[in-house]
Structures are given as C-alpha cells and as structure tokens.
Amino acid sequence: MHDLSYLALIWVGVFAASLIAHRTRLTPVLWYLFFGCVFVNVGWLPQHMPGFIEGFAEVGIILIMFALGFEEDTRKFITSIKRSWGIAFFGALAPFCVAYSVISYFWHDSNMALLGGLAMTATAVSLTMVSLKTEGLHRTPAATGIMTSAVLDDIASLALVAIMVPVATGEAPMSVEGIAFVLGKTLLFFIFVIILGWLLSADASPLRKLPLLGRFNLRYLLALADGEQATLGILIIALLVSLVAHYFGFHPAVGAYMAGLILKEEYFVFHQDKGVDFHKNSHAVIDNVAFSWIGPVFFVVLGTKLIFDADIFISVLPQTILLTLGLFTAQILSAGLAARFTGGFDWPSSWMIGFGMLGRAELAFVVMDIAYVEHHIFTDEVFYTLMFTAFWLNVAVPLTIRWWKSRFAHTVAT
Description:
Blueprint: H1 3-24, H2 28-41, H3 51-70, H4 74-79, H5 81-107, H6 110-119, H7 125-134, H8 141-168, H9 176-200, H10 218-223, H11 230-247, H12 252-262, H13 278-293, H14 295-303, H15 310-315, H16 317-341, H17 347-356, H18 362-374, H19 380-413
C-alpha cells in the first residue's frame, strides 16, 4: 500500500475517533490509540511504519507540545506558582513513587522503573480542562490550580526526561561525572531558551538600542508582509528550538514546548489598523493542525505498537490492576491534601483538584514512545501495563469530575 494510503486510513481513524470522543466525552487520545491498535491488528496498517508516516508523526508531537506551551499565559502561570507548587510537587512525587515501586518490584530494572515513573508523573492538562469545560467548571480557582500544577509537573517531567533518558540508554554513564554532564547540558539548554526569549522581546531585548539590529525583535519579524506569515514565523521558531533541543540530546518535544512558553501575546500586537487579532488567528491555526489532523497521527502510530497478544494481556493483568489502583489512590490523596494544606483551597476544591490530576496523556505517551519505540528500554509487558493504566486513569477523569460536580458546584455557589 502506498504511504499516502496509510495516511488516508489514519486520518479516517482520527476523524472517527474525534466523533466518538465527542459522544463519550473522553479524551480523543484514547480513541486515536484505539484505532491505531485496531488497524494494525486487523492488518490494515503495518507493524513497522514507513519513514514518511514516522516522520509525519514526529512533526505531530512537536506541534502538539508547541501548542500546549503556546496556549499558556506565562504571566498568569508565574503568579499562580506560589499557591500551586505543593500540588505539583506532592501530586507528582506520589505517582512517581508508586509507578517506580510497582515496576521495580515486578521487573527488577531501575531504568524501566525510572522512566515508567516519569511517564506516570505528568498530568493530562487538555483532558482535564476539556472535562471541566464540559461541566462548566473551567473558570473556577480549582481549574486554575489544576492547570498551573499540571504545567509545573510537565516542565519538571520534561527536564527529568532530558536528564534521565541519556542515563537510562547508556549514552551518559551512571556516575557523578556522567549525571553532572547531563545536568550541565540541561541547564545550558534552559539558559539558551531564557536568553532567546529575552532577545525576542521588543521591550527587554538588549539589542533594541543598536542601529539596524534593534529593529529585529520578534514583533517586527512577525509584522512583515502585513502579518500574513506570522504563523509560519512562530512555527519556524518552534522547529529551530526543537532542533537545538535535539542537538543537546533531548527529545525535540522538549524544545517545542519551551518555544511555546516564551512566545507572548504582545508580540502579535501590530497593524492594529487592520482590525485583525494575529495572536488569535495563529493560535487557532496551530491548535487546528496540532489537535485535529497532524498531531493525532502520532497517537494513532503509537497505538499501532499495541499488537494484541492474549498471553501478554493476561500476564500483565495483575500489574495493571495494582498500578491503576495505586496511582488512582496516591494521585487523589497527594494532590488533594497538598491543595488543602499548601494551597489553601477548601476541601471540595481540593478533592476536585485531586480528581483533575488523574489523567495521563500527551507527555506520558511521549515518554513511552522514547523508552519503548526509540530506545527499547521498556519490555512489551511494561509498555502494555503503562498503556492500560493510562487508559483507565483517563477514563476516571470525566467520571470523577462529573460525580463530584454537585458537591463542588454547591460550594462554589455559596
């Protein structure tokens, strides 16, 4: 079958998954994985994808991570860190410890346990916010707490992935010098991102007083050609920072996410006489390509790694049950108690935050892809256990939020 035929079939699956997700109010990611799994197991998609599809999927995850970073309001995020740091810390530490312990107990491998713990650490921001929006709760303080905590978890997880993957794959030795080298590279990369954000700023850039060079801030560049190429301009930045991240030995998704974070809405304020909101337009385009037709290809392709094997399914059933129950309990208790005692939220809001932190989506699957597909650190059994666990945790998010809504909404109203 021609590569374009595979892409057409994948897009059919993406379209069907989106419709089903709308009906079931579950994250589309689950259905993307489902259709990828079905297509490969019935023989419609190959077990080993051609390079064109693999490359298309790689572009998809870069766009997804860039879109997630781009939609964050950096200033609001920074101001809410003080209240949400405890939720992020304890809400990530407890799931990491549970996943690390379960994987280490059953498979006796520290590298698998480390990356498995990281995969189960980051919260699915989009899944939770969609669920809260469906119930009309997306503008509550609890929603802000969930968002900030989840983003902090994601940034910390990205940094830890950047550090741990070279160690787990043997590219950096497990020694003080080796870990220091990886930490140094990580620090240099984040310093590079901070400096880049500084240089791109029209007001804070140190180049602004220099002749000729002072004009070349991001706002000036995006305004060229009457702003018609603004979206392409920021996508170029996302790709370039992704390539820099790859050069430093990190996954390109790390760079894409950080590139999104440093782009501010004020960079798009130009040609106001035209009455066009260039930031809104670019945001809409990027969201469309990232979440509607390019980004989902990554998850469908990842779903093709789930080759149905009854023996594996049965063999990992005890591990899946234990890991799912352990993460469910640890996540709600750790995030909920942290929200109450470090964030000062009331009890109904605290438990809502605990329920909202249950989901595992984009970043979890990125870590699984790195550890299972790219570097073969996970065995089939570990990969299937994590995938099944992520599925059930994601199912729990809309169900628990809807179940808790009546108590929570009554408290908000009063």
